[in-house]
Amino acid sequence: MEDGGNARRAERWEGYVDWRNRPATRGRHGGMLAASFVLVVEVLENLAFLANASNLVRYLMGFMHYSPSQSATTVTNFMGTAFLLALLGGFLSDAFFTTYTIYIVSAFIEFMGLVILTVQARTPHLMPPPCAATAPCAPVSGPRKAMLFAGLYLTALGVGGIKGSLPSHGAEQFDEHAPQGRKARSTFFNYFVFCLSCGALVAVTFAVWVEDNRGWQWGFGIATIAILLSVPVFAAGSGLYRNKVPTGSPLTTIARVLAAAALARRAGAQSASHGAVIDRAPSPTGSTDMKDYCKPGDMVANIAAGAGPAEPSRELAFLNRAVRCQEEQPGQQNGRLACTVQEVEDVKIVLMVLPIFFSTIMLNCCLAQLSTFSVEQAATMDTRVGRLTVPPASLPVFPVTFIILLAPVYDHVIIPFARRLTGTEMGISHLQRIGTGLILSIVAMAVAAVVEVKRKNVAADSGMLDSPKPLPISFFWIAFQYLFLGSADLFTLAGLLEFFFSEAPSRMRSLATSLSWASLALGYYLSSVLVSIVNSATGRGGHRPWLRGASLNHYHLERFYWVMCVLSTLNYLFFLFWAIRYKYRNAGVIKG
C-alpha cells in the first residue's frame, strides 16, 4: 500500500492542479500540446488589442475631435496603462488565483470594454456632434467622454490581466527539471513572440484597412470577435493544462525580508555567515531548484526534504541579517517578520534582476518611435506600392513581418548551431539575447537619423519644405529602421520573458514575467518625457525647439534620433556592467 501511495505521488506534478483544482498528473497535464492552445490564443488576443491601438490616434482625431497632441497623449496613456496593469495580473496570478482563472476573467473584462467602444462607434447620438463649417470642432465631453474612457480603460484592464497571466501560463506547462522541458520552454517563448507578431500583422493590415474604409464600428467589432473567440480556444485546452497553485502575496515576502534586514541592522545584528554558501552558475542550463545548487555537505536533514538551503549566500549579504536576526533575537522575530533562508534568497534574486529590467526601458523608448515620429515621417513620403497606397498606420508591417520570418529561423537554425558550438543547453543565454537587442536598437537610431537627413534633403532640393504633398522619396527608406527595431524587439522581448520566468522564484514568476510589459509601458512614458525635455532644453534663448515647427520638415528630428542613439549607447554600457556581474540561479553547464 505504501509503495502504491508513493507511485501515485510520483505521478503528480507537485504544486500544480488541473482546471477543476485536482492534482495535476504527469503524462496527462502539461507539455507542448497544452502550450499550443496558449500560442493560438495569443494570436487572437494581440489582434484584439492592436486592431485598435495601432490606429486609435486617427479615431480620436477624426471622430472624437481631439487635437493631435491630445490624441497622442490619450493613446500613450492607454497603452502605457494596459502594459503596467500586467503587473496587477501577474501579482494576482501568483498570490490568489491561477493564471487560468486570471485569463478567463481578464478576457471577459476586455470583451466588455470593446463592446462599449463598438456600441459607441455605431451609434451617432453617442458620438460628439459633427463639425460645423463656421465653428471649431467640439471635442467629446460629458457622458460621451465617460463612455469612451470606460471602454478604453476596461479594455486596458483586461489587456493587463492577459499580458500578466498568459505567457507564464504557457511556460508553466513544461518540466523545468528536465533538459527537454527547458528546451521546449525556450521554444515556447520564441513562438509566443512569433504568434504575437502574427496577431499584430492582421491588426495593422486587415483591421486598419477596415477601420479606414468600412468604419470604426467594424474595426472595434473585429477586436470584439477576436477576444471572444479566444475564450473557447483557451478553454479547449483545459483538460491538458497544469495550473500552478498560488502561494500568497510575493510582495509581502519582499517587504518582510527588507523590513527584517533593516530592523536587524538598526539593532546592530551581524550578517556574517559561517556556513556553506550558495554557488550561482555563469550559464543558465541546469535545474532551478534551490536545493540542487547548494553543496551536498551543507544540507541539514530538513533540506533533504526540500525545505531550502541551509545558509544564505554571500551575495547582497546585508539581507542575511533578516535570518541572523531571527536566530539571535527569536523573541522579536518569530512574529510577522520571521524570515526563512529560502525567502531571503528569493528576494535577492528579485533585486539582482532589477538592473536588467531598468536597462530595457531605453530600448522600449526607441520602439515607441515606431508609432509616433516614424509614422509621421512616412506620412510625408510616397507610400504607393504599385496601385496600392499603404496607410501610415500599417507601417509596423515591416518589423512584424521580419519577426515572423526570423523567429522560426532563430529557433530551428541559429539556436541548434549555437548549442553545438558552445556545448551548452541554451546555446545563447538570455542576457546575450537581450544585449543583442540593445545593440540593434543603437544601430536603428543611427539609421533613423541618417534616413531623416536624406528625407529632409529631398524636401529641400525639391522645394517642398512647406508643401503638404508627398515627397518624391519612397517610404521604403523608413523600412530600415523598422527592420532593425523589429529584430531588437524579437531578441529582447523573448529573452526578457524567458529570463524573468526562469530566474524568478517559483512563487513570483507571473509577476516577474510581467516586468517585460512594464518595461514597455515605461518606455512609452519615457519617450514622452524625452520629447518634452528636448523641446524645453533646445527652445531656450529664443531658439525654436527641435521638435516643433510648421511641419515635420522644419523639425530637427535627426538630432533627436542622434540623442536617442547616444542615450541607447550609455544604456548598453549600464546593461553590460550588470550583465557581466550577474550570476544565473541555474547550476552547471550541460554538454550537448
UniProtKB/TrEMBL annotation:
GO cellular component, one term: membrane
Location in the cell: Membrane
Major localization listed first in the record, in broad terms: membrane
Regions crossing the membrane: 30-51, 71-93, 100-119, 146-166, 187-210, 216-241, 349-370, 390-410, 431-451, 471-497, 517-539, 559-580
One Pfam family it belongs to: PTR2
Membrane topology field: Multi-pass membrane protein
Keywords: Membrane, Transmembrane, Transmembrane helix
Keyword hit for Transmembrane helix: yes
A molecular function (GO) term: transmembrane transporter activity
InterPro entries assigned to the protein according to its UniProt record, in alphabetical order: MFS_trans_sf, POT_fam
Family from the record: Belongs to the major facilitator superfamily. Proton-dependent oligopeptide transporter (POT/PTR) (TC 2.A.17) family.
Protein name, as recorded: Protein NRT1/ PTR FAMILY 4.6
Source organism of the structure: Panicum virgatum (Blackwell switchgrass)
